[in-house]
Design goal:
The structure is a homodimer. The two termini of chain A are about 40 Å apart. Chain A folds into two domains: about 10-180, Rossmann fold (3-Layer(aba) Sandwich); about 185-385, Dehydroquinate synthase-like - alpha domain (Dehydroquinate synthase-like, alpha domain). Chain A is about 45% helix and about 10% strand. The model of chain A has no long low-confidence stretch (mean pLDDT about 95). A six-stranded parallel sheet of chain A has the order 1-8-5-4-2-3, sandwiched between helices. In chain A, strands 6-7 form a two-stranded antiparallel sheet. Chain A has 14 helices and eight strands. At the A-B interface, strand 1, helix 7 and helix 8 of A face strand 1, helix 7 and helix 8 of B. Strand 1 of chain A pairs antiparallel with strand 1 (about 5-15) of chain B, so a sheet runs across the interface. Chains A, B: Belongs to the iron-containing alcohol dehydrogenase family. Chains A, B: This is Iron-containing alcohol dehydrogenase.
């Protein structure tokens, strides 16, 4: 059990009626907001309507900034920062999924400094202040609505990097499961895979010797993610499944499971960031579904006991070997419609080398063990994913 | 899945070196503190020494207020409020277990109003402001260090009531597992039982139709509590067991498990509050160990599925009936040294009537279903505990 500091001051308003609190919450943070969103799905799922109504009632002025892409990019982020500065907004409202929230965090931090926001992602600077941020979540996946992380891709060099700081915690997040009812099936699948990956990394890569609490809680959240995802695919209109799934995805990565586990490396994320940094059309969850089983094969001897535990907990395997867990996991990913090979996400064998190079670069930024994860070994993992 | 608002802004500093942050954290809240503690065990376990050293280094003045009793009482609370007002302290430091923290919350809320603090406990008033509170936990049991609840006993009428409000969240809590190394075995046992009871109430008494996340997480925390308690009793000097236990007890009742479960009644607590309100020498955990199996017997038909789940999760029972779960739970409580009958905590058959009356009164304050929990039925439960 390692020492830790746990602090998560995000106020979560959850449920079908949560938006009734939006106006009052927004008022706490100022009189003028920047409303950030993506390609406009929030105009179909009801979120835009509810936000605008609430802001008007609360007499809060707002400026819209749309067009955030999945795997949000630095150039668009910078446009948002310029707009926030020009319009002198008091706070930011992010309405969408993890990409919108991550870019909004970057805008919130970038709007109060005079230097390039990318410095926060390379680690040269740390965010020390930021505009207040409120999120309205419409796509459960990254848990950015309840953590202090943000991931941005720099299109100039294909680097997808992250930053984190207490000032980037949203002040409040609104989670209305009804906004997720119109999501395409694949978004539920990729969101689930993303949430599972957020547990997989600390589950397998933690450094603490003993922490049964975190592993037991992780087992419980993993089971919820699997069962709720299956339930939603079978019965897409069931509110309870959507709601329980939405909250499970958030809890998977709000910091609780990682408490006391010590430092955990994020190798699956490093490799996936290389993939979607170079191939921006690959969804983060799709990339992770391809990488995780391959990575598990790479570590199957070192992580034998945990792989067996993972298989027993999620797939009720008994008297099994790590290979059985990996096989069951891959089969389950296929069964929900996730890709499990590079080919399925449009990546060819001769792309492996450049992905490995980029992943190696990400791992260096993350101060990971690059002896274990040498370029050759990353290529080996990627080859397992062919 | 029910709508909810989740907000828990307590900053938790956890681990053997956590006190190095104490001085800086304290400075944020003012220049003069009231240091509240009990009978002085903090002078033996090292907490007092570390606090005083940190305060001196941080040049923070402090006034001591000791003598908080287990099951803290209103009269002593009022003395603390008077002292806090007279000395014009900026903030409160609670050093001890749940009793010290609960009384400190009452002092924090009472020091900023001119009326009787008991009004917060009867529900006539709600705390709207309070002095900032920092806690240094030395006895894991109530999770008061990471929630907004407080329980106080009014000795004049034997009523043990609770209050809760966002302003009662500690600003920061320091959890150093080394302070728990010198605890008597029975304190570990009672603390474990208390933590289990905090999960048992929402686990069995929730009103949401569907919430697999909360039940799965609850299962995981319950297993951690059981295993860590057993481990500590077998190997009292093992830091990892103490540490993982300490954090498990906090997580059991920091609000997370209850999210989305809807309203849960707390019948075991209502009955126990009557017991320790009338018999203040009964430890809260001891009372709960006696009440819980008896209460389970009372609801064994209504709660059949959940009782089977509880038995499977904690005691690996298979193809079992609720009675087997109750028997296994009772046997396990005995095995760790907890009492399981009223006689063992010094209560006689002819005390049952007055306990039932008092419990019924508590249940009325808590707006519980007093048809289900009529005086006769409470007597029935207590009779099961003979």
């Amino acid at each position: 059990m390692r020492d830790f500091i746990f602090f998560n001051p995000v106020k979560v308003y959850f449920g079908k009626k949560c938006m009734k609190y939006f106006g009052n919450e927004a008022k706490k943070h100022g009189k003028k907001a920047l409303l950030v969103y993506g390609k406009g799905s929030i105009k179909k799922n009801g979120a835009y309507h509810d936000i605008v109504n609430s802001l008007e009632k609360a007499e809060i002025e707002f400026v819209e900034f749309s067009g955030v892409r999945p795997n949000p990019v630095l150039s668009h982020t910078k446009e948002g920062i310029e707009l926030a500065k020009k319009e002198k907004v008091d706070f930011i409202i992010a309405a969408g999924g993890g990409s919108v929230i991550d870019e909004s965090k970057a805008i919130a931090a970038g709007a109060v400094v005079d230097f390039d926001v990318w410095n926060f992602y390379t680690g040269e600077k740390t965010p020390e202040k930021a505009l207040p941020l409120i999120t309205v979540l419409t796509l459960p996946a990254t848990a950015s609505e309840m953590n202090m992380g943000s991931v941005i891709t720099n299109e100039e060099n294909g680097l997808k990097l992250s930053t984190g700081a207490e000032v980037l915690y949203p002040k409040a997040s609104f989670l209305n499961p009804n906004y997720t009812m119109t999501l395409p099936e694949e978004q539920i699948v990729y969101g689930t895979v993303d949430a599972i990956s957020h547990i997989v990394e600390p589950y397998f890569n933690h450094t603490a010797e003993y922490n049964i609490l975190s592993l037991n809680v992780a087992d419980g959240v993993l089971k919820s993610l699997k069962e709720n995802c299956e339930n939603i695919l079978n019965e897409p209109n069931n509110y309870n499944f959507r709601a329980n799934h939405m909250w499970s995805v958030t809890v998977a990565f709000n910091g609780l499971i990682r408490t006391g586990l010590g430092r955990s490396e994020f190798p699956n994320h490093a490799i996936e960031h290389a993939i979607s940094g170079l191939f921006p059309d690959v969804a983060h969850g799709a990339g992770l579904a391809v990488v995780m089983p391959a990575w598990m094969r790479f570590v199957k001897e070192e992580k034998e006991e945990l792989l067996k535990r993972f298989g027993q907990n999620l797939f009720k395997l008994e008297n099994h070997k790590p290979d059985h867990t990996i096989e069951a996991f891959k089969n389950w990913l296929k069964s929900i419609g996730a890709p499990v090979s590079l080919g399925e996400i449009g990546i060819k064998e001769n792309d492996i080398e450049k992905i490995a190079e980029k992943a190696y670069e990400v791992m260096q930024f993350w101060a990971m063990d690059t002896d274990k994860y040498s370029k050759e070994n990353i290529e080996k993992i990627l080859t397992f994913a062919l």
